[in-house]
Design goal:
By secondary structure, the chain is mainly alpha-helical. The protein has 9 helices and no strands.
Amino acid sequence: MDDADEDLLTRSVSEPAAFEPLVDRHSAALHGYLVRRAPAAADDLLSEVWLRAYAGRGAYAAGRGAARAWLFGIARNVLAGHWQQAARGAQGPAGATSPVGDPWQAVDARLDAAAVGPLLRRRIADLPAVERELLLLVAWEQLTPTEAAAVVGIPAGTARSRLHRARRRLRADLSSSAAALTPLTGDVS
C-alpha cells in the first residue's frame, strides 16, 4: 500500500527521497489547476510550486489539513504572485494598471455547454471571490470542501456554508433564466 501523502511529506524532512512520490501523485492535478488559470505560464509556475513545497516541507503540520490541500495552497500563492508581477509589468505611463488577475474571460471558451456558457460565466464572475474560488477548487480540482477551505485559509464550516450559498445562487440564477435559455438550446419541451 502506498504511503499517505502526509506521512511522506513529514518523512521527507529527514529523507528527501520521500518527497518524490508526492511529485508523481500531484503534478498532474496541480498543473491542471495552473493551466486553467495561467495557461502560458503553467509549466514555470508548477516548477515554482514544487520548489516552494520542497523548501517549506519542514513547516508542514499534518494536523492542519491534508498534504494535497497544502500543495494547492502553495499553488494558489504562486499564482497570486504571478498575477501581481504581471500587474506591475502592465503599468502604463501614468501609473495606471491594466486589470490583471484570474483570467476569467478565457474560462467560457473552455465550457462545454456553449449556450449556457455566457450566462454561467457572468453568474460565477459575480460571486464573491472566496465563494468563486471555493466553487472552482471543488468543481475543477475535485478537492473536498475541507481541503478547499485549507487552500483559501478559512474554517471548513465557513467554506461549506459559502460553497452552499454559491451553489444555491447559481442554481437560482440558472433556473430563473431557463425560459430565456430555451430558445438558445433548441429545447421546446
